[in-house]
Amino acid sequence: MSYEEYVRQHFQRFLKPSTKGKLWQVFAIILLVLALAASLIAFGNYYNQGADYLAKKTNDFVQLPHVNFIPFRLGLDLSGGTELVYKADTSLVPAGTEAAAAQGVRDVIERRVNAYGVSEPVVTVQKSAGADYRIDVQLAGVKNIDEAIKMIGETPILEFKEQGTPETSAAEAQKITAANAAALKKAQKPWEK
Fold first, then answer.
1. Residues near 151 by beta carbon (within 8 Å), at least 6 away in sequence
2. Alpha-carbon distance 125 to 133, whole Å?
3. Tell me: the pLDDT tens digits for 177-187?
């Protein structure tokens, strides 16, 4: 068999493949399209620069479409940011429910941070060897500590209240209101300057 016949035979196999060959061709085309899409997403900025260069060299005769550039989201370790550590005072929390209370505070802080659109915040609860709970808040890209504290809330207060019943008298309701006002005043007292 000569070289020309060998090339013609393989070329015919490519143009008129068997059923199994057609399946492989479809698979290869899908794989090629996915690889092209992934490379445009990963290297979209370079593609846009190349498209601009080609348009400039051809006096805008050849204009390729641009792709949206998606920048990398860098974490606290690469982009810098703020890390806040709150120590939870669990002295007033009933024994055995400290972990649940700390988890609830973590959820509240995470919701507050997510509301401001900070990219990939990390909010974790850490328990020391003793019974101390700490809430670690890592905010990537937030370099102003005052802004971070304001974002979370200067005095996060978690209150547990009992729901009143219809039988609650006006005197009891007044006592509850006075107790809540005293608790709020007590909570704000250490933060006053």
1. 112, 113, 116, 118, 139, 142
2. 7
3. 888 888 777 76
